[in-house]
Amino acid sequence: MSKKFFAVVAIFALFAxxxxxxxxxSTPTPTPTTPSSSATPTPTPPPPPPEKTxxxxxxxxxxxxxxxxxxxxxxxxxxEKNVTNxxxxxxxxxxxxxxxxxxxxxxAQKGYDVIITTSFGYMDPTLEVAKDFPKTIFLHCSGYKTAxxxxxxxxxxxxxxxxxxxxxxxxxxTNKLGYVAAFPIPEVIRGCNAFTxxxxxxNPEATVSVVWTNTWYDPAKERQAAEGxxxxxxxxxxxxxxxxxPQQAAEARGAYGVGxxxxxxxxxxxxxxxxxxxxxxxxxxxxVKRIQAxxxxxxxxxxxxxxxxxxxxxxxxxxxxxVQKLVDDKKAEILAxxxxxxxxxxxxxxxxxxxxxxxxxxxxxxR
Amino acid sequence: METREQSSLENTPNPNRMPRIKLLNISRLALASPLAxxxxxxxxxxxxxxxxxxxxxxxxxTAYGSFFAYSFFSPYxxxxxxxxxxxxxxxxxxxxxxxxxxxxxxxxxxxxAIGAIISTAIGVNLNLPAGVLLPLIFLASFIGGxxxxxxxxxxxxxxxxxxxxTTLMMNYVALKLLEYMISGPLSMPHPNYPRSSEIxxxxxxxxxxxxxxxxxxxxxxxxxxxxxxxxxxSLGYRLQAVGFGHEAARxxxxxxxxxxxxxxxxxxxxxxLGGTAEVVGDFMRMERNVTGGYGFTAIVVVMxxxxxxxxxxxxxxxxSGMLVGASSLTLVGIxxxxxxxxxGLLLLCVVFAGFIERWLKHRWEEKAKVVC
Lengths: 367, 372
Known about the structure:
The structure holds two protein chains of two kinds. By secondary structure, chain A is α/β, with parallel strands linked by helices. Chain A is 43% helix and 18% strand.
């Protein structure tokens, strides 16, 4: 009994101790700011503080993931650099679902003007919070639900996916390609199909096998999925994940890889052929400028290669010149507007069971 | 052996020596435990501080300041901490029952997943009035979790397979089952993402003040119930006896196999309610991360509380404060993952504190003997 009593006392004591230690630590916190504030008066008198637009970014992974979140954070930095009167903050590794609701609500309560939620699973939480904060503007990446103060944005990554598929289709020797994909949801399936159509455009014999990881960010799982594909004889590994894990697995086996999100060649220099990449900063700067000017209205922004939202990472030196030329020519067509999503997904299309999915030529049901 | 008996005999009867020994035994030896804890905490934050300084060049005091300021001194932060501690307290309460019986039930995460699956299956499909539906959800989850961890109990009693391994492995089976459920049988009618439909409105427990849900009160009520079970029932007496010494309990005529099975059933059943709380009091549906790793976090919490049920909620609040505070770490340029490192460090240091405590007690006892 006494042992128990003391354990309780111990815990209480610890709490008291930590509370007091926090209390004392919070007092020295201002001290580091005092020297800096005493240093600031010397250069210039404080200018009249303009109303800064406060922007918060909610991330699914850590900014050091080398892929998805890294690129969003690059976009955040681009925004800070290219738009005046902007103050940004971010929070990493926020799980989708109920946890994200708490975090998004917290930032709304803190008075952020713009809250940017960068994962598909934040869609419902974003709308739920947006209901209660009509003056805050929410930008949700990759979703399909909007409200008066919630806009969505995404890019035509299928354009770059198609091009990367052409490279992969030319580089495979076994005619077996692997694709490590996160979730069987429209966004991922669309990319996967665009890649496969790109492969088939240059190599009708090739097959693309998909492994679903059911996670956006899990370096170990992404790697294992790639290894599984390599075991079945795949010699090019493409992916829709947040990290370079699958490419690293490919490099370890002497196979090729196609990155995603970011130029992943520095993580697996001997494997990465190229990869579809994101350039979020252009959109962030544009959207925040419009918000500042008061001209922003809810929208479903969907920029492509022409708008600078997506691109193809530089092709590796070991991709033969004629392949590079083929891809560059196709890229020029995309930029000229003569080859777009309607051409990528042009019928006749057959699904993996061989049944027809679209035969209306260029008039895909997208329109 | 003989000398030991002698010394214990010596210690007890002599009335002249009593006050002095008492003074030494209680006041000083009692200090050993808090002292060891304080050392453990100081060590954790010292090592953590060095890591902060070395990796980011940030002032550790500023970092810790913002870390705890948000969790424990901001109104929304406090609510978040209380909300996050809910499943941890419930899972911890279940776990402690097994731990006190000497059974390493590390399967709370999986048991929570089973609880979540059952709660969702009932909560989405059975349109009953709240007064029937909610008790049914809790009861069914309890039974489901009990049977799930009962598998480990059965393997232990029948084949002597260590429960630590089986409960741990069963976590992954349960989590895979959950993944299958949300993309298969329990997925939304028009799935665009692996998750279930929302549970019926009458199955959703209300928020006291968002994000704090009524489930927190359920968690708090569970604590004295488990305390009573352990300390005031014959089952509790027997399970503690087994926890203290297998052989002694067996010689005292206890049916250890039966007891093991019962304890595993109750333990798993209670832990599963953690998953139920997440479904009916937070997510209102089932998603991939509905269990949120709280079942694993509960292991740290139970260790931190030294398997004491009354201390456990405080440990849970502290750890959940560290988890919630992680978000404010990024504000000062430290990766959010650092709070996980800190929790891991704390666990190591608390284990280390156990050694310090024993060493201190040993030393002071020796001294006490010398003085006498």
